[in-house]
C-alpha cells in the first residue's frame, strides 16, 4: 500500500502517529519558508505541512495542482483548527515525500463550482468525476443500489441475470441490434427491458425476482434521456395489485430511510389516472403543492361523470371560451399584484411553441375584494368572482385560464401549473411526495393504423372485471370516428405508476398469464397468429405449462437517484453518460469500424446521401 | 396474495392453522376415496390431502402435473411423517381449491434426473429452470453474488456502472458491434470488459471500484464458452501486487465461508508461471493432487535454471527419446497392474487429435520391486528404476512418459496428468484448492506479424525492476528466429491469476499509469502514434492529469459459481444460456430483422455465398 491512512481519516486522537498519505494536490500555499498542501482523496482532505528543511527538495520537485503525492510524517495538532472538515484538527508534518505522478494543468478547475462548460467536462469526464459534486452523486447512487438490494434480499427476492443478446421484437421503441458473425444475416437485439424473461422466471417458479440492470432504447434523445439506462426490475408471483403496491412503496420508503435518513411514515397517496388528468392535467402530477385545475369546460365523452362549470363562462359572447373544447383555470396564490409586464410575460410563456397556446386569460383577485381581468368587457365582476371562487382562489390570488382543444389545453395548463409552482418555490428539492397513479386505460388508439396499442405494454392484464369484455369482443375498430364507443376504449389496465415529485420513477402491472388472453391482446395490437408465434412463441408456449398469476414493476434507477439527489439531470448521476446525439465524447464513440469487421459480419454500409 | 404461506414453510407448530398455499402440482396419488397431491414452489413441497368430500369437485376439475393450484384448509399432523423434507411432519387438509392455471404435459419430467436431452431442455428452458438441480445452481449464484457485494462493500469498494455502448478497439478478441442510427456509418462496441473505464475511475480518485457486470466477446465458442458472460470486476488505487493478492484471496475465502460454510484458513499457495509450467505443464495447475511432471529432457533456452535429467534416457539408441525436444514423465500411483488393454487404451487416448501425441511409453513399478516397460529392449531394469525413482514412483506405481516437441508434449503431459487424476478420483468436487500463479511473461511473440502481443492485456505493468528494460530498448524484433534473445522476452508482468481446482477463476495485474510507459507498450504491440491516439487517446490523456498507481482483478463469475457448485459446465449456472453457435434456442435468436430496421440503420447485408 502506498498509504497507511486515507485523507479523510486522521483525527486529534492520531496526533504523534507516524503515517503515510497518498492523494491529489488540491492547493499549494507558501507562507514564508513553509508550505501548506491540501491533499485530497475520495475520503477527504488533509493538510500537509512542509517545513523549511524540505525546501530544497520542493524546489527540485515543485508540486502542482492534481499532482499525485505520497507523504510520510507525524500527525500534528493544528494551532488554528478548521472546523469545516473532519480532519481539520490535525495536519501532517511531512518528513519525506514522493511525487507518484505529475499533472499538466487541468482544462477546468476541480471544484464544486467549476469553470468548465458541459462539453469540456464531458470530454474530460475523468477529471469532472473528481469534483466533489459529482462524487456525491455517484456515492448516493451506490447507496440507493445497496439499499435496494438489501431490502429486496430481506423480502426473499433473488437477483437473476437475464441475457443481453436477445431477439428483436420491436413493439414500441426501436431496438439496438447486434449483427451475429456466427449466424450471418441474423441479428441480436439489446433488451429494452427484461420483461419477458422475468415473466418466464415466474413461470419457472422463481417467485420473487429482481435485477438492477442496463436497458437499451434507440430513440431520438430528448434532453436527459440516455440510449442506455438502468432499471430496478422486479417481478413477483401469486400477487394481486395491492401486494405489489405495498411491497414497492416500502422499498422506496426503505431507500428514503437508509439513504437520506427520511422517515416517510405517511401513507402513499393513490389517485386514478382519470383523477390525475382531471385535477392536474397530467398522469404524473407533482402533489407537493395544490393549485389544482378547475375544469370549466371539457369534453363530456372523456370526463363523463364530472361536474360541468360551463355556465360560469357561457353566454358572455366571449368567442375564445365559446369556441373552446376545453377551458381550465388554476388559482395562483398571492400573485394578484402581478404587473402588466408580468402577465404579458406569462402570456408569452404559454404562447411558446413548447406550450402552444394562443393566449392567456387572467383574473386578479385583489386584496380589497375587487376583481380585475383581461376579459373585463365580457364578464361582470360578479361572474369573475364566481369563476375565481370555483377555482378556489382567495383574495390576493391570480387566476390563470387557458382555453382550446382538450389535449393541448390540459397539457398546457399542467405545464403552467408546474411553472408557477416552481417560480413560487412550491417545488422544493428536499421535500418528497410519493403517489401511486392507478387504473390507466389498457389501450390507446393509434389513428394512423386505426387499431389499438398497449398503453403500458402488451403483457399488462386488464382489470379482472374487464377480462370478459376483452375476450368477448372483436378488437377491430369498424368506425374510426367513434373509436371511443368501442368496448375496448373503456377497459382499464391492472397497472400502476409510482410518481415522485412529478416524475414517474416506476411503473408496472399485473401481467396476463392466460394464453388465450395474451393472444387476444396480440390480436388487438394487429398481430396475426404467425407474427405472434414468430415474436412471442416462447411466451405463449410457456403459458401452456402452468403459468402462475404474477406482476411486477420497474423503476428508472437513474431518475430515482437524480430526484433523491435533488437534481433534474440524470446525466449528473451516471459515471460515463452520453450526449444528446448518443455520443460518448470522451471515447469518441460511436466510430467507424475496420473493413475486416464488416467482412466478418457480412454487412456493409448503405448510407443515404 | 394468493397464499398465506409458502410450500416450504409449514411445520408441526402450525397444526390446526387455517392456511392457503399456491404452487405447482408435482404428483397426484389416489388412494381409494382420498387423493394426495404434492404441491411445489420455490421453497419446498407440501402434501395436500383431498378427502372424499372433494371428489365430485376433483372429478369436474381433474388435476394434472404442473397445474397451478391454490388450496385452502387446516394444517394437519401426518400419521406417517416424511423425514426427508422439512414440511414432512404436516399436510394440508384441503377444504377448497382453485385451479389457477392448467398445464399440458411437459416435454420432459420436472425432476432432478430428468428424461430431457440438452436440446429439449434449452428450448423449454422455462421448464428446465423448474428442476431442483437448476434452481440450486441459481440460488448458489445469487449467494455468491450477495457474498461478493457484502465483502467488497465492507472493504469500501463502490459499485459504479460503466457503459455498454462503447468504442470498438479490437485488440485480442473480436468485438460485438452495434450500428448507430443517430450516427450513420458509425458503430458502438459492446465491452469485452470495463478495463479502461475502471482505470479512468482510479484516475478520477474512486479508489476502490467493483461491478458484477456482463461482458461480451465474439469468439468462436468452444464448449462451455458464452458470447456474453459475467465478471466480478475490481480495481484499487495506491496498491502494490501484495495488497491486491491479500484483498482478493480474502474475498474468495469469504465466499467459501458464507456460501459453502467452508473455513479456508490455510494460506493460498503461490507459484511462478515458470514453476507451474515446469511442474504441471500448465499455467493453471490443479494442485488438489501431486503426480508432478518429471522433465527428463527439455529445451534449455526455456527452462535455463532447471536440473537436466537427460542422462536417464540418453544413449540408449531409443530413437523416440533421442529425437525428442522434450521428454516428460509422471508417476501414476497404484496403477502398476494395468493390463495391456488398459495401457493400450491410454496410448489411444494420447493419440487422439485433441492430445496429438505419437505414442506413450510406460514403466510398471511392480509390487515385487521389478520393473516392466514398453521400452524394455532399450533400457535395462536398472535404467528403468532410475527413471521411475526420478519421477518419484513407488512400488505399485505406473510411470507414463511422453516425448516430442516442447509445447505440445508439455501440454499433453498436463492433460494426461489431469485425466489420470480424474480417473483415480483425485479431483474431488467438494475439495477446493486455491493457487496464485505469478510472474507471467509480459509479452508473447506473434510469429505471423513478427511482433509482441500482450499476454494479459496492453495495460499490464511490467515488474518495477523491468521498467527500465522496457523503456530503454527498441521493441522491434530484428531477428525473428532469435526472438527469445530480445530483452523484451524476459520482461515479467506484474500480473497474477487465481486458480481454483485447475481453473483460472480470476486474473489481474498492476497497471501501467505512466503515459510514456503506456505509449511504449502500444508501440511494442505495433501501434503507431496515430492509432494510439485514435483508439486510446482518452486513456493517454487521462494519464497526463495525475494518474495514481493502481491495479485490479476480474473474476469469471459464471466459472466461479460452477466450480463452487461442483460442476464443469457454466451453462448450468446461467438462467438463459446460449448454445455453441451462440443461439438462444428458446427465443430463436439471433434472427432476421425488418427492412425498416436496415433502412433506419443505413446498413445492408453483404452475405458470402
TrEMBL record, chains A, B:
Its main location: cytoplasm. Pfam families: GAD (PF02938), tRNA-synt_2 (PF00152), tRNA_anti-codon (PF01336). Homodimer. Belongs to the class-II aminoacyl-tRNA synthetase family. Type 1 subfamily. The keyword Transport does not apply. The lineage of its organism: Bacteria, Pseudomonadati, Bacteroidota, Chitinophagia, Chitinophagales. Its EC number is 6.1.1.12. Residues 138-577 form the Aminoacyl-transfer RNA synthetases class-II family profile domain. It is found in: Cytoplasm. This is Aspartate--tRNA ligase. The gene is aspS. It catalyses: tRNA(Asp) + L-aspartate + ATP = L-aspartyl-tRNA(Asp) + AMP + diphosphate. PANTHER family: ASPARTATE--TRNA LIGASE, MITOCHONDRIAL, ASPARTYL/LYSYL-TRNA SYNTHETASE. InterPro entries: Aa-tRNA-synt_II, aa-tRNA-synth_II, aa-tRNA-synth_II/BPL/LPL, Asp-tRNA-ligase_1, Asp-tRNA-ligase_1_N, Asp/Asn-tRNA-synth_IIb, AspRS_core, GAD-like_sf. L-aspartate binds at residues 171, 217, 456, 511. Catalyzes the attachment of L-aspartate to tRNA(Asp) in a two-step reaction: L-aspartate is first activated by ATP to form Asp-AMP and then transferred to the acceptor end of tRNA(Asp). NCBIfam families: aspS_bact, PRK00476.1. Keywords: Aminoacyl-tRNA synthetase, ATP-binding, Cytoplasm, Ligase, Nucleotide-binding, Protein biosynthesis. SUPFAM superfamilies: Class II aaRS and biotin synthetases, GAD domain-like, Nucleic acid-binding proteins. GO terms for molecular function: aspartate-tRNA ligase activity. ATP binds at residues 217-219, 226, 504, 556-559. It comes from the Bacteria. Residues 195-198 are annotated as: Aspartate.
Amino acid at each position: 500500500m502506498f498509504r497507511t491512512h486515507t485523507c479523510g481519516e486522521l483525527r486529534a486522537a492520531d496526533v504523534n502517529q507516524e503515517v503515510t498519505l497518498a492523494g491529489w494536490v488540491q492547493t499549494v500555499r507558501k507562507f514564508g519558508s513553509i508550505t501548506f498542501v491540501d491533499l485530497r482523496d475520495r475520503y477527504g482532505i488533509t493538510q500537509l505541512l512542509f517545513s523549511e528543511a524540505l525546501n530544497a527538495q520542493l524546489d527540485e520537485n515543485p508540486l502542482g495542482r492534481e499532482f499525485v503525492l505520497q507523504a510520510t510524517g507525524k500527525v500534528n495538532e493544528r494551532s488554528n483548527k478548521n472546523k469545516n472538515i473532519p480532519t481539520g484538527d490535525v495536519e501532517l508534518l511531512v518528513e519525506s515525500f514522493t511525487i507518484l505522478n505529475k499533472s499538466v494543468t487541468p482544462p477546468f478547475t476541480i471544484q464544486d463550482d467549476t469553470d468548465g462548460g458541459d462539453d469540456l467536462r464531458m470530454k474530460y469526464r475523468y477529471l469532472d468525476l473528481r469534483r466533489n459534486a459529482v462524487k456525491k452523486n455517484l456515492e448516493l447512487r451506490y447507496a440507493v443500489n445497496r439499499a435496494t438490494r438489501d431490502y429486496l434480499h430481506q423480502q426473499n427476492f433473488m437477483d437473476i441475470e437475464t441475457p443481453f443478446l436477445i431477439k428483436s421484437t420491436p413493439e414500441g421503441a426501436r431496438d439496438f441490434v447486434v449483427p451475429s458473425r456466427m449466424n450471418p444475416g441474423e441479428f441480436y437485439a439489446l433488451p429494452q427491458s427484461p420483461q419477458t424473461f422475468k415473466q418466464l422466471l415466474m413461470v419457472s417458479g422463481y417467485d420473487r425476482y429482481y435485477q438492477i440492470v442496463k436497458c437499451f432504447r434507440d430513440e431520438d434523445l430528448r434532453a436527459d434521456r440516455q440510449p442506455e439506462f438502468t432499471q430496478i426490475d422486479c417481478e413477483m408471483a401469486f400477487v394481486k395489485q395491492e401486494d405489489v403496491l405495498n411491497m414497492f412503496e416500502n422499498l422506496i420508503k426503505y431507500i428514503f430511510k437508509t439513504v437520506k435518513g427520511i422517515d416517510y411514515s405517511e401513507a402513499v397517496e393513490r389517485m386514478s389516472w382519470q383523477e390525475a388528468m382531471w385535477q392536474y392535467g397530467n398522469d404524473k402530477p407533482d402533489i407537493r403543492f395544490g393549485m389544482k385545475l378547475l375544469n370549466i369546460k371539457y369534453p363530456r365523452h372523456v370526463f363523463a361523470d364530472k361536474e360541468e362549470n360551463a355556465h360560469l363562462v357561457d353566454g358572455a359572447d366571449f368567442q375564445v371560451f365559446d369556441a373552446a373544447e376545453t377551458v381550465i383555470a388554476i388559482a395562483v396564490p398571492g400573485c394578484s399584484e402581478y404587473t402588466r409586464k408580468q402577465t404579458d410575460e406569462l402570456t408569452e410563456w404559454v404562447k411558446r411553441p413548447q406550450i402552444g397556446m394562443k393566449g392567456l386569460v387572467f383574473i386578479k383577485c385583489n386584496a380589497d375584494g375587487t376583481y380585475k381581468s383581461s376579459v373585463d368587457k365580457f364578464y361582470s365582476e360578479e361572474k369573475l368572482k364566481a369563476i375565481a371562487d370555483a377555482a378556489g382562489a382567495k383574495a390576493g390570488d391570480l387566476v390563470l385560464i387557458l382555453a382550446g382543444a382538450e389535449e393541448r389545453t390540459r397539457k398546457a395548463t399542467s405545464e403552467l401549473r408546474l411553472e408557477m409552482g416552481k417560480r413560487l418555490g412550491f417545488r422544493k428539492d428536499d421535500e418528497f411526495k410519493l403517489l401511486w397513479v392507478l387504473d390507466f386505460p389498457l389501450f390507446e388508439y393509434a389513428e394512423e393504423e386505426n387499431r389499438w396499442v398497449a398503453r403500458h405494454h402488451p403483457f399488462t392484464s386488464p382489470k379482472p372485471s374487464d377480462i370478459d369484455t376483452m375476450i368477448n369482443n372483436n378488437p377491430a375498430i369498424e368506425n374510426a370516428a367513434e373509436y371511443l364507443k368501442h368496448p375496448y376504449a373503456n377497459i382499464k389496465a391492472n397497472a400502476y405508476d409510482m410518481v415522485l415529485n412529478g416524475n414517474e420513477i416506476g411503473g408496472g402491472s399485473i401481467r396476463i398469464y392466460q394464453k388465450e388472453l395474451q393472444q387476444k391482446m396480440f390480436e388487438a395490437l394487429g398481430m396475426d397468429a404467425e407474427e405472434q408465434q414468430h415474436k412471442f412463441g416462447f411466451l405463449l408456449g410457456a403459458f401452456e405449462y402452468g403459468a402462475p398469476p404474477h406482476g411486477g414493476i420497474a423503476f428508472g434507477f437513474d431518475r430515482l437517484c437524480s430526484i433523491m439527489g435533488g437534481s433534474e439531470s440524470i446525466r449528473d448521476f451516471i459515471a460515463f453518460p452520453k450526449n444528446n446525439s448518443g455520443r460518448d465524447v470522451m471515447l469518441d464513440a460511436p466510430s467507424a469500424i475496420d473493413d475486416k469487421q464488416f467482412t466478418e459480419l457480412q454487412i456493409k454500409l448503405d448510407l443515404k446521401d
